Amino acid sequence: LPALELLDLCGCSALEELPADVGQLHSLKSLILNGCASLRCLPRALAPLPALELFDLRRCRALQKLPADIGQLNSLKCLELSLCDHLRCLPESVAQLASLQELWLTTSKAR
């Protein structure tokens, strides 16, 4: 799926992890995982998503951490982490997101 720009898995409550090959979707601009309440972890292979602008992880209540290399998502403009109840801290690499315009942490305990 080399031309795929939008992957919306909103509400897939049984999804526990994303396959590592999601990092091969080089044209992907929007990755929407809103409401994937069982999602615990994300693959380390997200960094090769050069076009990703929107990463929506709202209500991923079981998510415990973000990949350490998330700062390599150079095109990322919006990172939505609201209501991620088990996410306690953000990787230091978040500070490297030069294109980031919106960071949503509403009711999140992440620091």
Automatic annotation (TrEMBL):
- Domain Disease resistance R13L4/SHOC-2-like LRR span(s) in chain numbering: 3-108
Does this UniProt record's set of keywords contain Repeat? yes
Q: Sorted alphabetically, which SUPFAM superfamilies does this protein's record hold?
A: L domain-like
Q: Which UniProt keywords apply?
A: Repeat
Show the Gene3D superfamilies listed in the entry.
Answer: Ribonuclease Inhibitor
What InterPro entries does the entry give? LRR_dom_sf (IPR032675), LRR_R13L4/SHOC2-like (IPR055414)
Q: Which Pfam families match?
A: LRR_14
Which PANTHER family does its entry note? C-JID DOMAIN-CONTAINING PROTEIN, LEUCINE-RICH REPEAT-CONTAINING PROTEIN 57
Protein name stated in the entry? Disease resistance R13L4/SHOC-2-like LRR domain-containing protein
